[in-house]
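Incident log, structure service

09:12 report received: a user says their structure output differs between two submissions of the same chain.
09:20 pulled the input from the user's history:
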Amino acid sequence: MDRLGLVKSLVVYTQSHVKRRGGLLMAPAPIAYIEIEQNGSSTDLFLLILEFLINPLDCGSLRQLRSRTWGTLKALGVKLLIVNNADLLSFKALTELVRITEKLKISIVLAGSPYLNDVIDPKLDKKKKYATIHNTFLKQHPYNILNKENIATVIAEWEKSLGWKQPLNLASDNATIAVLEESSQGQLRVLYENLREVAIWKVDNPKAEINPHNVSVALGFCYQPISKL
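09:34 re-ran on a clean worker, output below:
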């Protein structure tokens, strides 16, 4: 899923709403973002939230951590908590998130792989205990691949970030965009990797023209010859 740029999108969205000064989180901080790195317990969940909120008191019992986390969330005015890789959370940790949204009235977004749906799906008998969790997070939004228009926009913005005096103008040619669309299959990270390959190839071949064929060569493949009629 990360190859679709999910993590990058979540981080950019969070940073656009949260301000820091000298490493300190400035209040109000309407959004908090955490990323689960491994199978996460309730303790892991609270420690990650406290780490994002720059609360140095990260020790104590589970009850103390819960109280400290709730208090810090309220003090900083957090309205939205984004939890990435939520499919790695334990049942108890997910239950803690339900309590946060019910008691503190904080909206929570669970992000992760498609496996997340299987984790909280209560249809199977063994998953019935997940019914409350499932009913808390009913709304879903699939993170889809980029379409052709999105790809053209990403390419244009990426070129601006290069700041080259002689831009590649990749987004000005529909055929070139089509080559990059095919090579990346609409995945954001793959598209960035391909764009870097094209830029490196151009540096190595400064006199070469940027066209669909040469972009294909830069990416390591070429068009197939057209059979004669």
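09:41 both user submissions now match this output. Likely a transient worker issue. Closing.
09:42 reviewer note: The first strand starts at residue 20 and ends at 21. Residues 34 and 83 are 5 Å apart (CA to CA).
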